[in-house]
């Protein structure tokens, strides 16, 4: 009998998943958790979670101009797997979106902006997002400022908003990102911060770049 067969037989004759996991090696337990996650994913979403796909499509709706077709693969047709869309990466273990890389640094001209529009609140539906790179695009929050709601993406470890022409206050709400390791706000020349005490709450931060942010009032 294979390990996989034994695992499912054990699952069938016990009353709780927890009991099964206690009988397995760590590697086997991880494999079982991955398989159970896969079974929970609706097949109609092509392998990604429908709510997360909807969040990406709503983000795309806020983009008024996609000069290089960066988001061309983001289509809602049946069978589309949003984990395969450009700039999107999902966890191999859970299937949730963990990385959104839409920065323009990879283009032939590293300073050529590709996306023009608004940063949608729909990103708040990506509860497992760890890496967000929107750098060097012409984006803004609902009021033109750096969006306060980014401070609610509690799973973020990497946030790069460099080179985005924001206007106004750098939101102290970013201090709520307790898991953040990297924060790059450089070259956001029209933004300012009169108080940077919120940075002290980022206990896990390893890299901070606020070059060109107006700190003259600190």
TrEMBL record:
Q: Does the keyword Signal apply?
A: yes
Annotated Gene3D superfamilies: Ribonuclease Inhibitor
Instruction: Tell me where it resides.
Output: Membrane
Pfam families listed in its UniProt record: LRR_1 (PF00560), LRRNT_2 (PF08263)
- Per the record, the major location class is membrane
Q: How does it sit in the membrane?
A: Single-pass type I membrane protein
**GO cellular-component terms in the record?**
membrane
Entry's transmembrane regions: none
Q: Which InterPro entries match?
A: Leu-rich_rpt (IPR001611), LRR_dom_sf (IPR032675), LRR_N_plant-typ (IPR013210), RLP23-like (IPR046956)
Enumerate the UniProt keywords alphabetically.
Glycoprotein, Leucine-rich repeat, Membrane, Repeat, Signal, Transmembrane, Transmembrane helix
What residues does the Leucine-rich repeat-containing N-terminal plant-type domain cover? 52-91
What superkingdom does the record give? Eukaryota
The answer to keyword Endoplasmic reticulum applying to this record is: no
Give the matching PANTHER family: LRR RECEPTOR-LIKE KINASE, OS11G0565920 PROTEIN
Q: What is this protein called?
A: Leucine-rich repeat-containing N-terminal plant-type domain-containing protein
Species the sequence originates in: Oryza sativa subsp. indica
């Amino acid at each position: 009998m294979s390990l996989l067969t034994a695992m499912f037989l054990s699952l069938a004759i016990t009353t709780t998943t927890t009991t099964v996991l206690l009988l397995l090696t760590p590697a086997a337990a991880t494999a079982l958790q991955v398989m159970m996650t896969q079974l929970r994913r609706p097949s109609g979403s092509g392998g990604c979670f429908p709510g997360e796909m909807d969040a990406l499509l709503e983000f795309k709706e806020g983009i008024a101009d996609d000069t290089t077709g960066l988001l061309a693969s983001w289509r809602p047709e049946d069978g589309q797997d949003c984990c395969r869309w450009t700039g999107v990466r999902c966890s191999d273990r859970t299937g949730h979106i963990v990385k959104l890389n839409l920065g323009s640094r990879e283009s032939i001209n590293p300073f050529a902006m590709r996306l023009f529009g608004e940063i949608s609140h729909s990103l708040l539906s990506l509860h497992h997002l760890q890496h967000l790179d929107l750098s060097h695009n012409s984006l803004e929050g609902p009021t033109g400022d750096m969006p306060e709601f980014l401070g609610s993406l509690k799973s973020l470890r990497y946030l790069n908003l460099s080179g985005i022409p924001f206007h106004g206050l750098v939101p102290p709400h970013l201090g709520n990102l307790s898991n953040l390791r990297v924060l790059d706000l450089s070259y956001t020349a029209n933004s300012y911060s009169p108080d940077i005490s919120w940075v002290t709450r980022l206990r896990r931060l390893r890299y901070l770049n606020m070059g060109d942010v107006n700190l003259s009032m600190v």
